[in-house]
Amino acid sequence: MTPPASGTAERSTLRAVGPHLVIAPPDAEAAGLAAALDPVRAEPGTLLLLAAAADAAPVLLGSLDELARTAAARGAGTLVLAASGLAATGPDGRRPAEQLARRTGLTVVAPDAVVSVGEDGTLVAPGGCWWWCRPGGGPAEALGERWPAAATITPLSGGGFWVTAAAPDTRPAVLDRAAAPGAALLLVVGEPDGRLPTAVQLANATALLLDTVGADRPLLSLPWAEPVDLIELAAVLASSLGREVRAAVGLPIADATGHRTVHLAADGTPGWEPYLTELSACPVRRTVTAVGRRTRPGAPQDDGPVRYPAFPGWELEPVAAGLWLHPEGTAARGPRLRRPDPRQPVLLIGDPGRPVTEDVWAHLGGVLAGLPPLGAAPLGPPPGPAPVGPPRLALVVAGKPDVASDAVGRFCARIHGLDWLGPEGVVGPVAPVPVPGPVAPVAPAGPMAPAAPPFVPGPVTVRLSEPPAGAEDVTAVLPLWPEPVQPPAAPGVPAVPPGPVTVATTSGAATTAPATTTAVVATAARPSEPGADGSTAGAEPVPEAATETLPEPVPTPEPAPAPDPQPAAEAAGAPRPGAPEPGATAAAALRPEAPAPLPDEAAPATAAEDRAALVAALGPAYQRWASRADDATTRLPGLRSFTDDDDSRPELVAVLLHHTDAGVPAGRAELAAAARAGVPGPPAVYLRCLAAGLRRLPSHYGGVLAAAPAGRTDLAAYVPGTVLTEPAPVSGITAAGADLGADVGIEFAIWSVGGRRTSAFGEPGEQPTVVFAPGSSFEVVAVEPPDADAGRPARVLLHEVGAIRPAPERLRTWLGRRDAVAPADRIRPAAPDRFRIDLGGAAGPAGEPPATGGPSEEGRTGES
After folding, report:
1. Percent of residues in the chain assigned helix, strand, coil, to nearest 5
2. Given its phi and psi angles, is residue 223 left (phi above 0), alpha (psi -120 to 50 degrees) or beta?
3. C-alpha angle 269/274/276, rounded to 5°?
4. Do residues 626 and 654 touch, judged by C-beta distance below 8 A?
5. Which residues contact 665 (CB under 8 A, 6 or more apart)?
6. DSSP 154-200
């Protein structure tokens, strides 16, 4: 393809050609571009752009934000810019590609010479070199004149192979002990402090080795990588090869005691033996599941779920970092993806964001008694790697203990010889792994290279294809790039989430949930690091096992959306709704990171006659509803236990009836009308039981979405500063990417401080639901008119009135996540009418807030 002349009047454009992007003149033939790029394979986690125009430089510089959004939407962290000379060193020694990496927050791969697309789909820079430029700075890494370059394969003395992105400088001695049990082909991937091979590199190397060695089952090991990297590469490799791929947690080694796996320190020193030993990536089901755990000496490996004995309602799950004791069906992902510390395993207790009560500690001794011994001695404290004796478990509270539970936990840790690390907030949700597709291995251009001798100690670089002689199908010619101006730090670009992902479980069950979103920022932060708004990237509901990625147990009906920033209590003297806003001086007052604790009061129960009246109204069906409510409470260990003197079942039955919209003893519409009319009778009894039941549930701090009834567009009632008191219960959804219907005229975006989470009373796979108790009040913060161009209806921003008055920017940050999801990509709940209400139709007078006593709580959960 010949680039346009420099005098072309029309500017070139950035366009998509299949899975790739191209900068080309407007009159360039789409068919020709598609044919030229057809041999170039799409690689998971990578976005490729071919610059095939003389004016590509200004077009590229003006399209960086669009590229960042596209990369985030596809889950790509690497941007391959096939633009001639982009990585050439300028007069000051800097490479423009390095500047682009810092500006976009993405790893940039670019050539320093003229680039062409070869017949075999590789990108060639004859006489030049491709460079790997990191977003966090640091020297660029030379990759050779072809992209993707061939991986470096080093035979290991135990019969396996070490696959690295480039020739390693050193070889850890522990690799000489690496060996896989049985006939599996062991592939140790990556090196300490080095980048991993790409999916294409690994697929090509694995296909070649399987054919050369004659093995039929690969066993992956990424001893220095994050657990999420192991999961992703195993899934991609299984899809590419069309066969099952096993993945070892840690490094499999052989010694006098037999085969075992160990975690490794950065210098290669062996640490402790993981409890979770192996994962399986299945290309047919497109899942990665846990299939192996360490057992007690002499005990057989069973075929059931990969769990250890716990106690009723709880399960003990082996994870890469150690063990996780949590309520059955917990859907959080953070503990499963926590990076292991090779010096010490951890025992995580609880579900992030939920309370850990005192009764859990009473079972700790029995749980520990059923575990296999830790085995190998751990590493010493940093920096010394020498063993220091038998390893000890460290105890981390992943949930939220109260003061009494914390004291009991510390005591139990001392009794059982555990190192107490206490509550910890770093095990929250992690950004999802994008759904990877298969990567077709490249067939060698010439005869198959002979197999390397199995015991040669030196590295052998395996090149899978030779550059075709004189092949230049598409040549993207660019002049040497002008000296780039040092750009300011680019703001975070909200991501558009990828499509739905399948949640695979060890029991074989599966469900579908929308994938999460991430924020692309101009830093080298990993996806699991907090975003610019203080939240951990992820979307609502968090899928517990991304397709082909996350080994996951059965999810609860209450998947946890990503956390927004923790609530910030107002400084002393903060105004209440209706009072004038403080001046600039007061606004600058410091706020604490977390809200002041609310009074720890028992949830007030309804009168005995109200409970009896509800039971009588339901008649014989009450026992069936009570049984379902009992099942739901097993997912909420923080609920108060039932007693003969305080039977709260009728209250929880009321919550169940409302959540499922059962129609008895009153439907939602009838209940709302009765609440607003204040009519005594069965609906009033139902409302009182519902309010008491809601007070027993965990509260939600974060954004909630609701909508006005169809056709409602009048915004006159929503004047900023007005306080709306709603006698009826208000249901909302916490998923920022939810679709409440095409006929919505007004969206209500509510910041909740005391709404109660009721999804435990629903069906698996439901989007997380929050219900505000009857009589809740909401202050109007702002009103936004409809935006026809964006396809958005009118929007009313509200804060729930309570003991905490959050800053308005928290709600706007949450809405930014919603606006980042295209209307066509939003997920519609099964019954969107549940989340519609004429909010304000029976509101109290403007500017007169009700009493603002803090809601009592059994447990508070963040937007997690």
Report:
1. 20, 25, 55
2. alpha
3. 145
4. no
5. 614, 617, 618, 657, 682, 683, 686
6. EE-TTS-EEEESS--S---GGGGGB--STT-EEEEE--TTSPPPPHH
How far from each other are the two terminal CA atoms of the chain, in whole angstroms? Answer: 51
**Which sequence spans correspond to the domains of the chain?**
13-148+468-476, 150-273+436-466, 608-693, 697-862
Tokens of 496: 């558009």
Count of beta carbons in the 10 Å neighbourhood of residue 774: 21
Bridge partners (DSSP) of residue 279 are: 247, 290
Would you call 246 helix, strand, or coil by DSSP? Answer: strand
The predicted-structure confidence for 136-175, as pLDDT tens digits, reads as follows: 878 888 888 888 777 889 999 888 999 998 888 888 999 9
Greatest mean pLDDT among 9-13, 333-337, 645-649 lies in 333-337
Question: Which class is domain 697-862?
Answer: alpha beta
Distance CA 257, CA 181 (A): 13
Tokens of 856: 């009592």
Encode pLDDT of 555-595 as tens digits.
333 444 444 444 433 333 334 434 433 333 333 332 333 33
Question: With contact defined as beta carbons under 8 Å apart, do 81 and 503 qualify?
Answer: no
Single out the residue of 762, 766, 730 nearest to residue 748, CA to CA: 730
Place of tokens 């190998």: 376
Q: How much is the average pLDDT of 827-847? A: 71
How do beta strands 730-733 and 769-772 pair?
A: antiparallel
pTM for the full predicted model: 0.46
Q: What are phi and psi of 754, to 5 degrees?
A: -145, 10
